[in-house]
Write a structure and sequence with these properties.
- This protein has 380 residues and is α/β, with parallel strands linked by helices.
- The protein folds into 2 domains: 7-153 and 366-379, Rossmann fold; 159-363, Glycogen Phosphorylase B (Rossmann fold), CATH 3.40.50.2000.
- The chain has helices at residues 19-35, 46-52, 96-104, 122-126, 159-167, 170-179, 201-210, 225-232, 258-267, 277-285, 301-312, 318-332, 338-345, 348-363, 368-379, and strands at 7-12, 38-43, 62-65, 68-72, 85-89, 110-114, 130-134, 137-142, 189-193, 215-220, 242-245, 248-253, 270-274, 289-292.
- Strands 3-4-2-1-5-6-8-7 form an 8-stranded mixed β-sheet. Strands 11-12-10-9-13-14 form a 6-stranded mixed β-sheet.
- The longest helix is centred in the first third of the chain and has 17 residues, at 19-35.
- It is globular, with a radius of gyration of 21 Å.
- The two termini are 15 Å apart.
- 40% of the residues are buried.
- Protein-arginine rhamnosyltransferase that catalyzes the transfer of a single rhamnose to elongation factor P (EF-P) on 'Lys-32', a modification required for EF-P-dependent rescue of polyproline stalled ribosomes.
Length: 380
């Protein structure tokens, strides 16, 4: 779509550390790289952005990274020309001055609210519908999703083939793990842990430590480190720390770039992830996983969790589905998951196959960036 000469503005308010900027940064780069669009990414917190893009200069209000114009979204907005397509990520509120600029255009822009990811049934019915209107500018709902009739998931061109090749290349995996200082013990299962604080963690670590099979647990910097430190009986943990308790080795990793995190997920036998961005990337890894969903008021996040589980476990036997449901629900409720983990391990080959099949099925749908571009083409 190199002849699509349009300018796109993406607005991102960093709410939960890295999830919001993680999604919008992936999307912005893909729109530039695969659709040859001119993209401006407005971010209100460049420090959070810097963690996943170290080249960012947090003191510069306008800069270019990987073909994307990155702009600091100031608290006091200065006038900027409105783009042809405007994406408000995760229902963030656009600056009033920018909304006026949209309305002043001779041809109003396409204005979309890129919403949070959900597997709930109502998403299909609401995707693409008009929302509020500001003067002459109509806003539309745009929902990522897992089912036909939604906007799909972020997935770069050729991602699944690159993943397949990497997972079949033992030397490439060893080289990557070596680059992070990870020395995997022979026969040890490799697990990544990226999660919010969770009181259910200790029971899982107890079981892993007491297991007959060794486990190497890789914990990137993040909010779960405090709970890991408490279980280990240490005051704090830092990057590079390595602790061994019986059959369990715990290693703290630095917060890595997005492409490195993909490779980490691809290397692991099991991935515990959180939020939205790492949740989607773990699905593309094709390995069994555990999702720590972001907690919302009145526990409405549990409806989203159950909706996803209903789809994800559809191809499993009743016993394996029950095991996965128990594990995921207990984890998101902060309950002990040790027994649930042991139950899930009884169905490991089936869970491995299901993860790969799910990944390939989702890969048959249009990716989110392509779906956004198609929506614009249909709109004009």
């Amino acid at each position: 779509m190199s002849d699509l000469k349009t300018r796109w503005d993406i607005f991102c308010t960093v709410v939960d550390n890295y999830g919001d900027i993680g999604v919008t940064w992936r999307l912005a780069r893909q729109l530039v790289a695969e659709h040859s669009l001119t993209v401006r990414l407005w971010v209100d917190d460049l420090r959070a952005f810097e963690r996943m893009c170290p080249e960012i200069n947090i003191h510069v209000a306008q800069q270019w990274q990987e073909g994307v114009e990155v702009c600091h979204w100031p608290s006091e907005w200065t006038q900027a020309q409105a783009a042809d397509v405007v994406i408000a990520a995760f229902a963030c509120q656009l600056p009033p001055a920018y909304m006026d600029a949209m309305a002043e255009r001779q041809q109003p822009p396409l204005w979309m609210n890129l919403d949070y990811l959900s597997a709930e049934d109502w998403v299909v019915g609401c995707h693409g519908l008009p929302s509020v209107k500001y003067k002459s500018v109509q806003k539309f709902f745009f929902f990522p999703g897992f089912q036909p009739g939604t906007g799909g998931l972020l997935r770069e061109r050729g991602l699944l083939e690159r993943r397949r090749q990497f997972q079949q290349d033992a030397a490439a995996q060893r080289q990557f793990l070596d680059s992070l200082g990870i020395v995997r013990a022979p026969g040890a299962q490799l697990i990544s842990l990226f999660a919010y604080e969770n009181t259910g963690l200790a029971s899982w670590l107890d079981v892993l430590a007491a297991d007959d099979e060794p486990t190497h647990l890789l914990v990137p910097e993040g909010r779960i480190l405090g709970d890991v430190a408490h279980w280990l009986g240490v005051d704090s943990l830092a990057v590079g720390d390595l602790n061994v308790r019986q059959a369990l080795t715990v290693q703290v990793l630095p917060f890595v770039r997005q492409d490195q995190y993909d490779h980490l997920l691809w290397c692991c036998d099991f991935n515990a992830v959180r939020g939205e961005d790492s949740f989607v990337r773990a699905q593309w890894a094709g390995r069994p996983m555990l999702w720590h969903i972001y907690q919302q008021d009145e526990d409405i996040h549990l409806d989203k969790l159950d909706a996803f589980l209903a789809l994800y476990t559809k191809g499993l036997s009743p016993a394996a589905a029950e095991a996965m449901n128990g594990l995921w629900r207990a984890w998101s409720a902060g309950q002990p998951i040790g027994d649930h983990w042991l139950n899930a391990r009884k169905h490991w080959p089936e869970l491995q196959k299901n993860a790969e099949v799910w990944c390939l099925e989702q890969g048959l749908q249009a990716d989110l960036a392509a779906a956004l571009v198609r929506f614009y083409l249909n709109w004009i």
